[in-house]
């Protein structure tokens, strides 16, 4: 009869199903668990808070890393892009420049980090890991030198800074601006990565760098683009971060690095070939954010939260990777 | 017909070019290796001439002491990279090593402050370190999770457990062992410096002087071939993660002795450990990670920070110059490697 009548095949396909959707299933289970355990978890106010405070900024950084990881590389300097954008943005506003100049300057600073990475990787043939690690060290020094050892810069009330408080606080049709920014960027990156020629080149470089080169893809050019885009996206997070907390705190961007890498790779469990994808990455970010928030609501202290997140991510990965291995 | 001849001619000239090129390549590789060592030497020479007290025995021993913690950790990381291969996203890496050291230090200091003796406390720290390493091994080898991802999750667990244990405070500790490590000395060299020397000698002997070490390189370099040759790839890879955990535990005892306490924030060492382990490849002939290369790069980083201190350069510069030097050295190396691979 039909193949699925074979109980063995059915078992295998069930396993494959579980392996593919383990992150989604875990996500649903976690949401249900916290919804039962904490009455405030599913309230609109709380979900809104999670979205604005825990999801948006991490997600934008993770979108950039999704592009880089798709190309087979890594960017350890995303924190520097976040910080440099934040620093230049806040310094310009503090010096009395208008918001537009501030944003332009901030993105320009992130762009410089991206171009530096691109030159090191494509012109000097340094591996992405080492190149971006070196840039990370240089970026840390630069910030320490620029702020006499790491003094935060605060934005006092003034024309431009008040204007920029607006970025974080205002809403369009009831949706806060940062969320709108995220949605636009996510759609843009999704189209770029999964629906454009550039995206196909990036995927090809990630899957088979040698073949990509032989088939005429201008690898250096596309790779430069990848790193510049990643740095720019991180720069957007830097500006949103400064606009939200109305200050620049040196060396604070690095906190995004490990979470963003984690979210991107959690997202890769969605695809059979373990390719990064925008939807997967967003799901990974949501998973991390929901767990953090949920553990807080059920009364775990900050220290236990980190253990909880580690254990949970570990379990999700173990199930996803373990089941897939069993199906092979 | 003519095509065959053309082809044959092309083949011959290719061969001729290849011989010429391989000599040139060998020369370029040599220049680069010597170049990396020359850059090292030039910077040291500058410090010797201009940094007051740089060459004093006291200062050099001080540098070795300061390098001990980073060195032991970098050995752990190097072993993982040797056994897991050095691919950027899929190769061996242990992101949890610095957090693991923090956890072990917290366990060690807490047990000491609760009145347990050195023996039990050291045993507990080493058990915890190796258990964390075993967890990494289980995740990477047993479950097939990407090392980058598995050790990232374990990093969170270890860092969280350290915070839970110490409540993010400094836990003071004192014991005969710690006192000995700080003030003991033999042949004019302090115990802490001896710790690095002995540990280095042991691990270099194991990894570079035994069949076991050679097999470990085989496993990392070409897992399929290693398996075909009858090696148990899972065993060797697991071993490197457990060794990495052991290194974290040893480093934790050294750090508690240096600071007389376990302090939060040890996770910040991770990037320096990575830099040391990766920079070390420059010092090897085939640009592979080696323990000797790691030791050189650790001492290099230590001497650099020390030289800047003596020259009274702001410590804010140290990270940046370290980063720039890493890039410089690696750029020269990859130039040689590029000419090597584009045959």
UniProtKB/TrEMBL annotation, chain A:
List the membrane topology term(s): Multi-pass membrane protein
UniProt superkingdom: Bacteria
Q: Name one Pfam family in it.
A: BPD_transp_2
List residues traversing the bilayer: 21-41, 47-69, 166-193, 225-245, 251-270, 277-297, 303-323
Keywords for the protein's UniProt record, in alphabetical order: Cell inner membrane, Cell membrane, Membrane, Transmembrane, Transmembrane helix, Transport
The family database entries (CDD domains) matched by this protein are listed as:
TM_PBP1_transp_AraH_like
Where in the cell?
Cell membrane
Check the record and name the InterPro entries matching this protein: ABC_transp_permease
Using the UniProt record, give the first listed, main subcellular location.
membrane
Task: Tell me what this protein is called.
Answer: Branched-chain amino acid ABC transporter permease
Automatic annotation (TrEMBL), chain B:
PANTHER family registered for this protein in UniProt: ABC TRANSPORTER PERMEASE PROTEIN YPHD-RELATED, ABC TRANSPORTER PERMEASE PROTEIN YPHD-RELATED-RELATED
Presence of keyword Ion transport:
no
By what name is this protein known? Inner-membrane translocator
> By its UniProt entry, which CDD domains does this protein fall under?
TM_PBP1_transp_AraH_like (cd06579)
- How does the protein's chain sit in the membrane according to the entry? Multi-pass membrane protein
Q: Which InterPro entries match?
A: ABC_transp_permease
Family annotation (Pfam families):
BPD_transp_2
Q: Which residues cross the membrane?
A: 27-48, 68-85, 97-116, 122-155, 167-187, 193-214, 235-257, 269-288, 295-311, 317-336
Give the top-rank taxon of the lineage listed in the UniProt record for this protein.
Answer: Bacteria
List keywords of the entry alphabetically.
Cell inner membrane, Cell membrane, Membrane, Transmembrane, Transmembrane helix, Transport
**Cellular localisation:** Cell membrane
